[in-house]
UniProtKB/TrEMBL annotation, chain A:
Residues 61-108 are annotated as: Disordered. InterPro entries: P-loop_NTPase, Ribosomal_mS29, Ribosomal_mS29_met. Residues 95-108 have a biased composition (Basic and acidic residues). It is found in: Mitochondrion. Keywords: Mitochondrion, Ribonucleoprotein, Ribosomal protein, Transit peptide. Belongs to the mitochondrion-specific ribosomal protein mS29 family. Its main location: mitochondrion. One of its GO terms (cellular component) is mitochondrial small ribosomal subunit. The keyword NAD does not apply. GO terms for biological process: apoptotic process. The keyword Ribosomal protein applies. This is Small ribosomal subunit protein mS29. GO terms for molecular function: structural constituent of ribosome.
TrEMBL record, chain B:
Belongs to the universal ribosomal protein uS9 family. The lineage of its organism: Eukaryota, Metazoa, Chordata, Craniata, Vertebrata. This is Small ribosomal subunit protein uS9m. InterPro entries: Ribosomal_Su5_D2-typ_SF (IPR020568), Ribosomal_uS9 (IPR000754), Ribosomal_uS9_CS (IPR020574), Ribsml_uS5_D2-typ_fold_subgr (IPR014721). GO terms for molecular function: RNA binding; structural constituent of ribosome. It is found in: Mitochondrion. GO terms for biological process: translation. It comes from Panthera pardus. Residues 369-390 are annotated as: Disordered. Gene3D superfamilies: 3.30.230.10.
Length: 442, 390
């Protein structure tokens, strides 16, 4: 159809031919695809006019033709690529952005999906129980992108690994989402290929441990073989790749028959801890020391994530055989973890969470770092960057309700009405934990 | 005459007993012996206007008219004395003043209000007595005396007479063709029929339940047909007004704070918890209890549901801010006390109709239930000790 309009009076010179041909070809290419008839007619008019004029002179800037021609491909490309998340004006609760690194302000309040395979690697038995029940029920793991997590991700993206490790402490009232924000950060670091040292709940190490043994390394301290071996198993699942890469820098003698040579991969230490449960705590200590020493070298980046870090400086409910109370520093695991959380190494970050829920001898309404950590803990962790995690904003609340409705979890007929939502808002006061409990099964 | 002899003997004794009465009777005509007996028997039933003891009425104390009159005089004199004692004007000394004076002069700690000292007009103290139903000749005054319930039957007779009149009038109108089917909606709301006890008191006669029901049915039938003003007035005599409860509801006035925001304060109680709530007119649904957020103060969902009830009922869930203080009781009673306080405070922001709805929903009534006392011989208030057969 274009050929009819175009009328070349004289064949153009060689130098111009390419440009003209280019523009014409571009137009020819584009015309069947997009219906920009006006542009075509203008282009045709310009072509005919200019072709009748002096062919040698470049009155008409071919760039302009190219521009008009290339305007079409640009918009077309925009239509084809579609990088923005799908936002329908009504039910906005999900985003298709699966990479935490690309989460930004526009994703705030939206849920993103974590593939179940990643869940099994990153969080083997270390999710909060209610959340893991929800994951099992919905057969998908969706985390909401919230402001504290976004703030933390921003800091992590801009960390200078030459400086000592910065400590971030997530604090807030009960049920506001500190642990899940920590999970979000862990997912981000895993995607960025960091080494993740995740202690799911430090409170588990200071209460109801059955087998307390005197430590083989240091007579004054106590071992916890069961907890240590569980942790080592989870560590292995999470950081499979690094275990063969990192080499041990010293020789460790476990007992008369077994020892680990210098230069052997870290995986061996972990195996030793898992198989010989008696040495598990020492294995944990070795792992921590090695990682701390080697992260400064720059081979990998280390993320230390501890949930319920106030357990390290609180009291324990463990007793020795002579019924005397055990102080936290007398536990080898706690001792080693305290050293890990100190900021005398570089090449990584430390993200901590305070938790009143599992804490011992702390009042229910305490949530500030000063209250939960106590003087000793606060001094040990000082300086740190506190990040407050608060209740849902109205947009986030709406999004959460939408998510439940999409999964057909809210079955009450009034659940999708405005009055129902207002009731839920009042009863839960926009607290994520309370909302989840309200909407839970009977 | 063996039998009459017995009578005669008895009559003689009575004659002696009654004294002058017998001569009066004899003066009134020629009497046969039997008639004399009857007369004496009849005389036996007479109660004299003079204070002669009546055998039949010995079962119940009878207050004679003279006695009542004397009591009234004494009461009035006593009232004037009391007024002088209290330094008030005897002319304008009302019954409330008497009550207050007696409560002041004779303070009593008794719990039973009716056991405390009172000074009231004798008509309120002495029960109403029937006046003498028959004259000196022994003939009863009322034509329905021998039915036994003369006042009741006379009332029924009157009411039925009125009904017949009304129906006759209606028939006449219908015959003339002027009958119009007007149905007047009488305002029966706000009044109730007399209860049986009140009717008995009015007629000074014992009634049975069936009598009472029959009477009310007759009056209702009278109401269904249209009747004139006098019949209306007759029926209204037997109706008592019932005060509309909601008008008693005290609505707190609005106050304004420094920023010009309107707020309302009120209190509430439940068991031993006392609460005071300040409800602000514009807000976003935040509630603070003793300075702590309500989610932290009431971790149990049930308590928060109690707090939600007044707002949810009025459909004002996210519109008010509340600050409250509460003390005493347990978690559930504190929640109930705050709920009552909030509901009362909300009355000031809401229409009269909605206040009535709240009252009917039970939001404005203080829950009177308190812990029941443990009794001796039982394990708890109701629970008995385990019964052992042996």
């Amino acid at each position: 159809m274009y050929h009819n309009n175009c009328d070349f009076a004289a064949p153009p010179t060689k130098s111009m031919l390419t440009e003209w041909q280019l523009s014409v070809l571009v137009l020819l290419y584009i015309s069947p695809i997009c219906n920009e008839d006006e542009n075509l007619s203008v282009a045709a008019a310009m072509l005919t006019r200019t072709s009748r004029l002096v062919p040698g002179a470049r009155r008409l800037d071919p760039g302009r033709l190219l521009h008009t021609g290339s305007q079409a491909p640009q918009s077309l490309a925009a239509h084809l690529d579609n990088p923005a998340p799908d936002d329908s004006p009504r039910a906005v609760s999900r985003t298709s952005e699966k990479d935490p690194a690309r989460h930004g302000e526009q994703h705030e309040g939206l849920h993103y999906n974590i593939p179940l395979q990643d869940m099994r690697t990153l969080f083997p038995h270390s999710l909060p129980p209610r959340f893991s029940m929800q994951v099992k029920t919905f057969s998908e793991a969706c985390l909401m992108v919230r402001k504290p997590a976004l703030e933390l991700l921003h800091y992590l993206k801009n960390t200078n690994f030459a400086h000592p490790a910065v400590r971030y402490v997530l604090y807030g009232e009960k049920g506001t989402g500190k642990t899940l924000s920590l999970c979000h950060v862990i997912h981000f670091c895993a995607k960025q290929d960091w080494l993740i040292l995740h202690v799911p709940d430090a409170h588990l190490w200071v209460k109801s441990c059955r087998g307390l043994l005197p430590s083989t390394y240091n007579k004054q301290r106590l071992d916890q073989p069961a907890e240590a071996s569980i942790w080592l198993k989870n560590f292995k699942t999470t950081n499979e790749r690094f275990l063969s890469q990192i080499k041990v820098q010293e020789k460790y003698v476990w007992n008369k028959r077994e020892s680990t040579e210098k230069g052997s991969p870290l995986g061996e230490v972990v195996e030793q801890g898992i198989t010989r449960v008696k040495n598990a705590t020492d294995a944990v200590g070795v792992v921590l020391r090695e990682l701390k020493g080697q992260s400064s070298l720059g081979g990998f980046r280390l993320l230390v994530a501890v949930d319920g870090v106030n357990a390290l400086w609180g009291k324990t409910t463990l007793k020795r055989e002579d019924k005397s109370l055990v102080a936290p520093e007398e536990l080898a695991l706690v001792h080693n973890l305290r050293k890990m959380v100190k900021n005398d190494w570089h090449g990584g970050t430390i993200v901590l969470t305070l938790s009143q829920t599992g804490s011992l001898f702390k009042p229910r309404k305490a949530y500030l770092p000063q209250e939960l950590l106590g003087k000793e803990g606060f001094d040990a962790l000082d300086p740190f960057i506190p990040i407050l995690v608060s209740n849902y904003s109205p947009k986030e609340f709406e999004s959460c309700i939408q998510y439940y409705l999409e999964n057909s979890w809210l079955q009450h007929e009034k659940a999708h009405t405005e009055e129902g939502k207002k009731e839920l808002l009042f009863l839960s006061n926009a607290n994520p934990g309370q909302l989840e409990r309200l909407c839970a099964h009977l | 005459m063996a039998a009459p002899c017995v009578f005669w003997g008895a009559a003689v004794s009575y004659r002696l007993f009654l004294g002058g009465r017998v001569s009066l009777a004899l003066r009134q005509g020629v009497w046969k012996a039997a008639a004399a007996e009857l007369q004496i028997l009849r005389l036996r039933h007479t109660t004299g206007v003079t204070a002669k003891k009546n055998v039949a009425a010995l079962r119940r104390e009878t207050y004679t008219v003279d006695f009542i009159k004397k009591q009234i005089e004494e009461f009035n004199i006593g009232k004037r004395h009391l007024a002088n004692m209290m330094g008030e004007d005897p002319e304008t000394f009302t019954q409330e003043d008497i009550d207050r004076a007696i409560a002041y002069l004779f303070p009593s700690g008794l719990f039973e209000k009716q056991a405390r000292p009172i000074m009231k007009h004798p008509e309120q103290i002495f029960p109403k007595q029937r006046a003498i139903q028959w004259g000196e000749d022994g003939r009863p005054f009322h034509f329905l005396f021998y039915t036994g319930k003369q006042s009741y039957y006379s009332l029924m007779h009157e009411a039925y007479g009125k009904l017949l009149d009304v129906e006759k009038r209606q028939n006449q109108l219908q015959a003339k063709g002027l009958f119009s089917e007007k149905t007047k909606t009488k305002d029966l709301i706000g009044s109730r029929w007399l209860i049986k006890e009140e009717l008995e008191e009015m007629l000074v006669e014992k009634l049975s339940d069936q009598d009472y029901a029959q009477f009310i049915r007759l009056l209702e039938r009278l109401l269904t047909v249209e009747c004139s003003a006098e019949e209306e007035e007759f029926v209204q005599r037997f109706r008592r007004s019932v005060t509309v409860q909601s008008r008693k509801q005290l609505i707190e006035p609005l106050q304004y704070d420094g920023q010009g925001m309107a707020f309302s304060t009120s209190e509430g109680k439940r068991k031993s918890a006392k609460a005071e709530a300040i409800v602000y007119e514009h807000g976003s649904g935040r509630i603070k209890v003793n300075g702590i957020d309500y989610l932290l103060y009431f971790p149990v969902t049930q308590d928060r549901e109690q707090l939600m009830f007044p707002f949810h009922f009025l459909d004002r869930l996210g519109k008010h801010d509340v600050t409250c203080t509460v003390s005493g009781g347990g978690r559930s009673s504190q929640a109930g006390a705050i709920r009552l306080a909030m509901a009362k405070a909300l009355c000031s922001f809401v229409t009269e109709e909605e206040v009535e709805w709240m009252r009917q929903a039970g939001l404005l009534t203080a829950d009177p239930r308190v812990r029941e006392r443990k009794k001796p011989g039982q394990e708890g208030a109701r629970r008995k000790f385990t019964w052992k057969k042996r």
